[in-house]
Amino acid sequence: MHSNQAPPISIAQALQAAGALGLERLDAQLLLLHALGRPAHERAWLLAHDTDLLDAATQQRLCGLCSRRAAGEPLAYLVGEKEFFGLPLAVDARVLVPRPDTETLVEWALERLAGQTAPSVLDLGTGSGAIALALRHARPDAQVSAVDASAGALEVARGNAARLGLPLRLLQGDWYAALPAGERYGLIVSNPPYIAADDRHLAALAHEPPSALVAGADGLDELRRIIAQAPGHLALGGWLLLEHGWDQAGAVRTLLQAAGFDAVQSRRDLAGIERCSGGLLPSRR
Fold first, then answer.
1. Domains of the chain: which residue ranges?
2. Fewer beta carbons under 10 A from the terminal one: N or C of the chain?
3. At the top level of CATH, which class does the domain 91-280 belong to?
4. DSSP H or E run through 122
């Protein structure tokens, strides 16, 4: 796929050229729709117009996008959007791309909120606002506060909240440090950094912000801090629910028990992996 002086090519030829670069067909289709300025749900349109010719400007845009995708840049950054829990979220390199695995945490949180009126929820390390906005959308009566240390991430979350018409209270700071003194929540959720510094999978995540991924030698540094300080910010009878790595459930349950949590348990994601762990702050301590 060459730009500028290249002769016109058809939609079918453009997709074939993207495949030759090693791109999956779905990625190629979504990048082509983006280059054409068409919505992501119009893949059927591409099939119906596969003999249409692309102008030079579109070819050039597509060429650049395909090269970046072939180099490992996340598709969501290239098209500027990722769907999470049915919500279209704007994302860029200031935030992690929301993963389907994290929907397990949202589903569990919504179970814990069932039956409560106007619950107070805290999302630690909100990034794009994915978890906080999913909860706010499902529970319009909830008071949702979202914290992130990154001003850039909060800008992305603020934009998503405004675009979706889902008000959040956004606070900048290091975990609980951003919170007003004495404020307590009925539910705290977090998808913190949990990858070990020497993990071989980090190479594949090179385009995403390292501060949102890496948490010390064993990947548990931030989980330790969040769990240890949680009792000072949870209402009695409140829940702390955390996402973690595929092999960290046992360690996180141990940390929760050591911090005085009851009903400590884990939840599996769609792949059957223990993806989240949590516990209840007992009413009597």
1. 9-71, 91-280
2. C
3. alpha beta
4. strand 120-124
